[in-house]
Amino acid sequence: MTTADSAEMTGADTALKVRNLNAYYGAFRALKDVSFDIPRNKVTALIGPSGCGKSTLLRCFNRMNELIPGARIEGEVLFNDENVYHPAIDPTEVRYRIGMVFQKPNPFPKSIYDNVAFGLRINGYRGDYDEAVERSLRGAALWDEVKDRLHESGFALSGGQQQRLCIARALAVEPEIILMDEPASALDPIATLEIESLMRELIRDYTVVVVTHNMQQAARVSDKTAFLNMDEDRAGYLVETGDTHQIFTNPADERTEAYITGRFG
Amino acid sequence: MLRGGSWDREPSHGASLLRSGRSAPTRGAATGRVVHLIFFLCALVSIITTVGIVLSLLIESLGFFREVSVWEFLTGTRWSPILRPRSYGVLPLVSGTLLVAFLALAVAVPCGLGIAIYLSEYAPDRVRRTLKPILEVLAGVPTVVYGYFALTFVTPQLQNIPLPMFRDLLVFNALSAGIVMGVMIIPMVSSLSEDAMVAVPRSLRQAAYALGATRIEVALRVVVPAAVSGIVASFILAFSRAIGETMLVTIAAGATPRLTLNPLESIQTMTAYIVQLALGEAPHGSLEFQTIFAVGLLLFMLTLLMNVLGHLVVRRVREEY
Amino acid sequence: MAAADWASRFRPNLARRKVWGRIWFALFMLAIVVGLAGLVILVMRVLYQGAPWLSFHFLTDYPSRFPEQAGMRSAIFGSIWIIGLTGAFTVPVGVGAAVYLEEYAPKNWLTRIIEVNISNLAGVPSIVYGLLGLAVFVQLLAMGRSVLAGALTMSLLVLPVVIIASREAIRSVPSSHREAAYGLGATKFQVVKEIVVPQSIPGIMTGTILALSRAVGEAAPMIAISALVFLTFVPTDPLDKFTVMPIQIFNWVSRPQEGFRGIAAAGIIVLLVVLLTMNAVAVYIRNRTQRRSEE
Fold first, then answer.
1. DSSP state of A69
2. Helix (H, G, I), strand (E, B) or coil at A190
3. Out of A1, A93, A125, whose CB is closest to C9?
4. CB < 8 Å to A102, chain B
5. Quick check: is B282 in a domain?
6. Where are the domains positioned within chain A?
7. A60 CB near a chain B CB, below 8 Å?
8. How much of chain B is in helix, strand and coil states, percent to nearest 5?
9. Does B207 contact A102 at a Cβ distance shorter than 8 Å?
10. How far is A50 from chain B (nearest CA, A)?
11. What phi and psi, each to the nearest 5 degrees, are found at residue A181?
């Protein structure tokens, strides 16, 4: 999946293609037949009532879901036209090409520098580390705030700064896609706005997929929106996808309309 | 419900509660105070124990230190309190103690840490639930039994090793005692280290996996560094336990105080010396008798230092997350 | 950001890292094997050497200069004396201290000191307790090298463990139960007596039995008190002289004759059976109460 050809062939503007994806936790079915495309260099938001499987779907993209005992997946996720669930592909390979940022800032108990350099070290980066760390921190709009204290602990930063450090950490390994699981839900409003404007900057170089329970946030930051809902058996399914503007002003499905106008969820 | 009914009336008997002066509550209060005092005295027993330990060690050692200077005791390199020419340098006992303790750590640290990493990062729940009680059994075996094992099994096995250095291995030697003591303190290292690793938040592991780390990298580069203070504390506390361990070394390590770092030699630890003399019926008040309290005082201070250090490090872990 | 670019800057070398992962995993397995093998070989060795020497007369006879005639009667009775008295001393004091710390103690410096002190006492080497008992009980209080002095020493040794276990048991009593009793007008002592202590009895028993099983195997402090390794009578009075099982085993192990090695192993079997039984009882009590509280 790291050959030049496959990159050329996708060429167009699709970063991920999800095909008939089903996810299970033991006997419980968490996702039902999800299929849609995620466009390249755009922000795609996954919205829906809590428990509908948004986070599960996101974690299926970089095979993080497999870390949960009893989790099982059927279907395909095509990344550069290759199925990340192909038996010959190691989940680790998927994860360093598709980065992830979590709900709560989770810097390692190491220095700011070592946090960013972690991914470089394990993945055998061959360039200049100082330069790569600086580039990643600039990319996460954090460089100016921390350039004089790179060797202080990551815990010394504020919540919003910690989350940007986590983004910088993800950027360091140069992923193509960055998955964000409610990245601002633990932050104050100002830090939230900083993360949101950062997402708009990131799509110059990356594709961003963000799970959010905050519809204003989805409306503010995303280009595309996918709305998930769940059945009575609590299995999540995809209701519709489309341009964010269209979903929020003129949804095709009445369930979407009911959700975004706050009638449930 | 509060409206209407009897609840709505003036609280006519409410005031009488304060004024009635019934005797029952005051007697209850008196019992309460007595009981409180009794419980407090129970808790105080632990303080009295510590004071008792310190005083009894100090008072008996004082007689010793009137005859032998502290300096001579702490820096002398020959320990011969019974045979003439007498000499009261404690260093051979200290070196014997440390030698065995470090040998024990050399076994217990890698094994205990390996088990802890396996239990915390790899083991399925079922395996963990079986393995941990078995390890507890290892910690619960009386140390006399380990002494028997070291003397009658491990030492002969070592003597069978076809290397010239092992050919002349004595029946009593530091190596065999150290190895067996290492096995004995494995559970201490593994359970305390595992506690520290389990306390590392899952979100850190997830962050590392999301960067493309393999399982072993998550364990060794994220979890172990994050839990390092708890792990170090487990080493310190295990070390302290090894210093204070008595029967195993009395049985297997020998009774020849010797200033050496050679694990193949017979040595004597501080604890083994105390046992040797306690069995010898030295007359109360004699200098020989007082030596065991001087050695005991040193032992007590060493282990106290280690324990305080260990607990301080553990407290730092708790503050981290 | 094409994949080809990426591959020129990063060499993840996953295959090699996976191999390292497997090597480390093998080392962890090796660590477990060392621990478990230690235990298995020890038990096998003891059984192999000791089983031929086990017999009924071994339990009922006194020690002897001849291994064929030696028994551990005096040691068994000594151990029973010590454990019985130790239990009688530690349970009331340990539970009292635990109740004080959990239910009564104000949050002040004295309480802090008591708590830190208890955790430090748990780390004091057992031989040091032996010296304490020798100086205070044997000599200062003139009890001599008696069962009583031994039991008091052992009580101080296991007290921290009993206190810690009892505190845990008391802490697991739901505070709603206490509040319900207070709501009915109970005094603090009534709450402790009627609610807290009865509900924590299983936990206290489990902790106490485990602490006493540790005491059964302790030889060092008992040697400092008793100084006896060869005793041909059974104590009938708390002021009698005594020996205990681990001291007797120590004595046999230290003898050079091969026969005594076998006798020592037989003694170890008896000691281990006692310990296993005590542990099994403790675990049984714990499991039974856990199951009941889950129902």
1. T
2. helix
3. A125
4. 203, 206-207, 210
5. yes
6. 4-260
7. no
8. 75, 0, 25
9. yes
10. 20
11. -100, 95
Query: Is the pTM value of this prediction over 0.80?
Result: yes
Instruction: Find residues 7-36 of chain C whose CB sits inside 8 Å of chain A.
Output: 7-14, 17-18
The answer as to whether B206 is a domain residue is: yes
Is there a domain that residue B36 lies in? no
Residues of chain A by 3-state class (helix, strand, coil), percent to 5: 40, 25, 35
Is residue C49 domain-shared with residue C63, that is, in the same domain?
no
Widest pairwise Cα distance in chain C: 89
Number of residues in chain B: 321
Cβ-Cβ contacts under 8 Å, A93 against chain B:
212
| Pairs across A and B, CB distance < 8 A | 63
Please tell me the total count of domains within chain B. Answer: 1
Residue A111 has, within 13 A of its CA and on its CB side, a CA count of 11
Name the residue range of residue C149's domain: 57-294
The class that CATH gives domain A4-260 is: alpha beta
Measure in Å the smallest separation between the Cα of A127 and chain C Cα atoms. Answer: 7
The shortest CB-CB distance from A106 to any of B207, B212, B225 is to B207
Interface of B with C in 248-307 (CB under 8 A): 250-251, 271, 274-275, 278-279, 281, 284, 292-293, 296, 299-300, 303-304, 306-307
Vertex B43 angle, CA B41 and B44, to 5°:
60
* Number of residues assigned to chain C: 295
**Contact (CB, 8 A) for C129 and B50:** no
Whether A93 and B212 lie within 8 Å, measured CB to CB: yes
Instruction: Examine the domain organization and report whether C22 and C159 are in the same domain.
Output: no
A113: closest CA of chain C, how far (Å)? 19
Q: What is the pLDDT of residues A143-166, one digit of tens each?
A: 999 999 999 998 889 999 999 999
Residue C5 lies in a domain: no
CATH code: domain of residue C114: 1.10.3720.10
Along the 295 residues of chain C, how does pLDDT read in single tens digits? 456 677 788 888 888 999 999 999 999 999 999 989 989 999 998 899 888 888 877 777 777 777 777 778 788 888 999 999 999 999 999 999 998 988 888 888 888 889 888 888 888 999 999 999 988 888 888 887 888 999 999 999 999 999 999 998 888 888 888 888 888 878 888 888 888 888 888 888 888 998 899 899 998 899 888 876 667 777 777 777 888 889 988 988 888 777 788 888 889 999 999 998 988 888 888 887 766 555 4
| C184 and A CB contact within 8 Å | no
Beta bridge partners of A37: A17
Domain contains B48: no
